[in-house]
Amino acid sequence: MNHSQSRPAYLAHHFSDPAQQRDASKLGMWIFIMTEILLFGGLFLAYTVFRTLNPDMFYNAHKHLDLTLGTVNTIVLITSSVTMALAIRSTQVGKKKQTLIFLFSTLALAAVFLVIKYFEYSHKIHLGQLPGRFYTYTGIEGTNPHIFFSIYFTMTGLHAVHIIGGMVVITLMVVRTFKNHFSAEYYTPIELTGLYWHLVDLIWIYLFPLLYLVG
Amino acid sequence: MNTIPEINYLNHPKGIKSWLLTLDHKRIGVLYLVSILTAFLLGGIFAVMIRLELLTPGRDIMGPQTYNQIFTLHGAIMIFLFIIPGIPVALGNVVLPLMLGAKDVAFPRLNLASWYIYIVGALVALYAIFSGSVDTGWTFYTPYSTETGGAVVAMTLAVFILGFSSIFTGVNFVVTIHKLRAPGMTWFKMPLFIWSIYATAIIQIMATPVLGITLILLALERIVGIGIFDPAMGGDPVLFQHFFWFYSHPAVYIMILPAMGVISELIPVFSHKKIFGYRAIAYSSFGIAFISFLVWGHHMFISGQSQLASMIFSFLTFLVAIPSGVKVFNWTATLYKGSIWLQTPMLYAFSFLFLFTIGGLTGLFLGTLATDVHLTDTYFVVAHFHYVMMGGTVMAFLGGLHYWWPKMFGRMYSIKWSRIGTALIFLGFNVTFLTQFVLGTKGMPRRYYTYLDQYRPLNFYSSVGSWILALGFIITAIYLIHSLRKGKPAGNNPWGGLTLEWTTTSPPPTENFQTPPVLTHGPYDYDTADVKPTI
Ligand SMILES: [Cu+2]
What we know:
The complex is a heterodimer. By secondary structure, chain A is an all-alpha fold. Chain A is 75% helix and 0% strand. Chain A has a single domain (20-212), classed as Cytochrome c oxidase, subunit III, four-helix bundle (Four Helix Bundle (Hemerythrin (Met), subunit A)). Chain A contains six helices and no strands. In chain A, helix 1 packs parallel to helix 6. The longest helix of chain A has 36 residues, at 18-53. By secondary structure, chain B is an all-alpha fold. Chain B is globular and about 70 Å long.
């Protein structure tokens, strides 16, 4: 079979046409997203179990989270999802410079999120509102307040790891956009990065009310 | 006269680098095959050591602490490094795209990455073994696993990494099956092996992340004491068991479903007869996958979970018997009036039918509340799951290996020696484990370093069985390796199979087919298609 004609460079040898390749990549990404949801699913389960066991404590403990910072972070992440979507749109219409601007904005917003999270964490560490064995704070009424912070730090920590992972991938997309890897015909990697980023955003949308808005 | 094609995926391109950086699914399959067989060897050596120690009560070759570590390593290595990746990564990787008529899997780079991740996971496991080892059993139950010494965190990290490898393989296979089937291959013209790999991949994708989060929580519990599994801190150790078995029961079907797929290939080919109940077999794989997510509590009948929960889990567990039974009856019906050809792969298929049925039926005793309370944590359980896992999955793996070996390497192994090997493995297996059913019903607890004098004779037989098994495996290893250079060329279709992998050369070229394959008949149309074995 002659591969030289009419096969664009981005098309891998085992696919018959770009549409097949694109569909395959997208399906793969959706399945991967499902695994991520199940990963967090375990934590949601742990949350449910311990909130059911200690309802008053959860209510009292959640007041010690900073609602303002949490709200700001929610807005920051939603905005970053918008800029990510705009980056995809810009690639689709072949505007490289715009794509780069939107990708950098997404990165910047992700960084803002992490910085705010850093201030939240350090405040908690300062007060001794720490997971399990390291919990030294005394101002929360109810049974086992350390468990609330175990769950808070595990959930938000795992989410932060995903934010960092997303930033690495977006940086990769910046590099590839610079190198002109993408065009109006081929933009699947950026699209998939977008899917992943929306997932990370969506998980936060669930974490925020569960942790900051108890009661 | 059969010949080996001058240029094939094994010899072109050449060099170690071309293997380590290969994106060819067949080469990755071979890399995996070597890796999982190495793990199998290691786990097997540990198994023989366990049986040596149990030859007589008291100390034979090691102390109790070492013994705890050895059986943990046997379990963890066999499960996480051999039997869970097992059939899909080694045999599936090689034949799945061939059976579909595709040039490769959907994501070749992800495929190679999953092998490297597997290797990294295996190396971390080795590190755990040498930096203090683990004595928790492969189940890592809390609170013991959070309080014992040793390298529990390193071992959980290893299993976590291996989970990624498993997920990537699953994603790759699902997408390949959806998007890369040859023109004309509709869902119901796919070989049944593909159906079972698909059902397996769904479990890999949906259960493995839960294991991942369980291991993260366990590691956090150990490192920073988050307290959620620690009763002293308001946590719940039974919650760990729920988490663990939510993965590990479905994982049992990650182990057995691909084996059932292999058997669904072997039986029609060596009976030269259309498979009976194609759709029933295909759907039952999904039935098993679905029910597998609803039965985890049957591992926890004596954990203190509510009686009502136990009753529901017990009932749901019995439901698994239905799709499993559907398969066994359909295979048996396929044999009826077939012209049965007793080649080595078929001998393994018969071993599977025989042993898996015993393994499955003894599972009912454990799913029944009243009998399980008596049998929990005895050798009856050990015998049961070895009949399913080794009598089932390992026999099917060996059957599949002997079936596709001539396709993978182009050459035939010694038929005579392979029959001797099969006979020894079958015999050794039964001597080793049939005795353990009896030991279990007489109350001998599992995982103990020593035992009462009354269990001496049966333990002795069981240990002798392990030597027969070992001999069988040594013989198998010798003739298979010997065949790689000295075996007779097998020809394209040594067994007269109708699935697409038999239409290309043995071994196939890098892109699998010289010309794009065209589907002219279904995978088991022995009533209409004309096909002759080339050996
Ligand atoms: Cu189970």
